[in-house]
Amino acid sequence: MGQAQTIPIVGIVLALVTFVSMLLLGFDPIIALAILIVWVGSLLLAAGRPPEPAPVVVTQSINSDSMRKLIENSSTPLLVTDKNTISIANRAARRMMGQHIIGQDARVAFRQPEAIALLGDDRNGQAIIRGLVRRQDIWQINRQAVDENLAVIELINQTAEADISRAHTDFVANASHELRTPLSAIIGYAETLSESGETIDSPTSQKFLGTIQREALRLQSLISDLMSLSRVEAEKHDLPDQLLELLPLTERAARDAAGTDRLERLKLELNVDPCIKGDQQQIEQVVRNLVDNALKYGAPDTPVRVQLDLSRDGMARISVIDQGEGIAPEQIPHLTRRFYRTDPGRSRASGGTGLGLAIVKHIVERHRGRLNIESDLGQGTRVVVRIPLAEAGSRHANEGENDVSAEPSAKEAAQEIGGKSPIES
């Protein structure tokens, strides 16, 4: 668009008069003409002005169609209400609450006093509701008005955060309880010995001292396991890079766990020598914990078999098998929870802390492996740990194809304990 322009007549006339005067006075005609051209050009440029701006037309930019396109692919459940009637629900909201919510009154769709109070007051704000989809769900509802009729409702799932908070609370409570039990025994027996002086006979005092020593060792073991669990969780995102030969490591850790008094029950079936990338101390701890559990809870005078072979899915496989009472199927998914015991009395009597399998699970996860537990009541339990082979040890995979390797059974796959829940994390 060109510039609007007015011609400065007076200035041009003055320039012409000056030009003529210069000629009459004997100036060079070329210089006089150049001055005339510059003068008139300057006047014409100065007289120009920018065009008037085009009028701005304000249109309504928010409507149902544009809002529907804007929120449809959001991963957060979003609703748009028109006078509290749900007119738009994005894909995430429809998947969560069903297609039928479109056209419903929002207060009827939520059916929660807190949500009804928020929506009924027709105000911006937020509310916390429970059981929106499942019984234990916790959701935060945020309402923001767009205009006098339209409002956007955002649904934020806070179940995981609540589970983590509850898990931390449970962990502190359980740890406090577990620590208090041996401390109470130690303090009680020590006070009895102190107050009795020489009046207590030697056999009784020796019994008390034995109890104090046993509970102190249990307390030491519990603190050691808590520190191990804390260290493993702190390092769970750091992939180990130390190259380990699994056969000597497994044999050494299994024998250490058995000790001299239980060594005759240990049956080693180490068929291959795979290499993995791992943390030596943590892998030894996995083997020790599994073997110790099997020896504790297996039937007395029955063997505990420790197998090392290769699975067809390209992993080194450590299996620990006992011939104990077995574990009920409904208890297997909970075995890796902190302080979980199938038989609390028997576990405490045997010196168990309830943290062994929780430590094993976190170590296996750090090594990008898998943990499987299968058990038959009255027959025993089989715990299998699979850890990926290191590239340097991949030659063993070809050599081991004709060994006792086998695909994981359907039952093993069903009992795999590889995932994390907020309660356990």
Bulk shape: elongated
CATH class of the largest domain: Alpha Beta
CATH homologous superfamily title of the largest domain: Histidine kinase-like ATPase, C-terminal domain
List segments where confidence is low: pLDDT < 50 over at least 5 consecutive residues: 392-425
Q: What percentage of the residues does DSSP assign to strands (E)?
A: 15-25%
Topology, please?
Blueprint: E1 4-5, H1 9-24, H2 29-47, E2 48-49, H3 64-71, E3 78-82, E4 85-89, H4 91-97, H5 106-110, H6 113-120, E5 125-130, E6 138-145, E7 150-157, H7 159-196, H8 202-234, E8 242-245, H9 246-262, E9 266-270, E10 275-278, H10 280-297, E11 304-311, E12 315-321, H11 344-349, H12 356-366, E13 370-376, E14 380-388, H13 395-399, H14 410-414
Parallel strand pairs: 9-11
Antiparallel strand pairs: 1-2, 3-4, 3-7, 5-6, 6-7, 8-10, 11-12, 12-14, 13-14
Helix pairs in contact: 1-2, 7-8, 8-12, 9-10, 10-12
Describe the protein.
- The chain has 14 helices and 14 strands.
- It has 425 residues and is of the alpha+beta class.
- The protein has 4 domains: 4-49; 64-157, Beta-Lactamase; 161-233, Orthogonal Bundle (Helix Hairpins), CATH 1.10.287.130; 239-414, Histidine kinase-like ATPase, C-terminal domain (Heat Shock Protein 90), CATH 3.30.565.10.
- Helix 1 packs antiparallel against helix 2, helix 9 (246-262) packs parallel to helix 10 and helix 10 (280-297) runs antiparallel to helix 12.
- The two termini are 67 Å apart.
- Residues 392-425 have low confidence and may be disordered.
In short:
This protein has 425 residues and is α+β, with helices and mostly antiparallel strands. It is 46% helix and 19% strand.
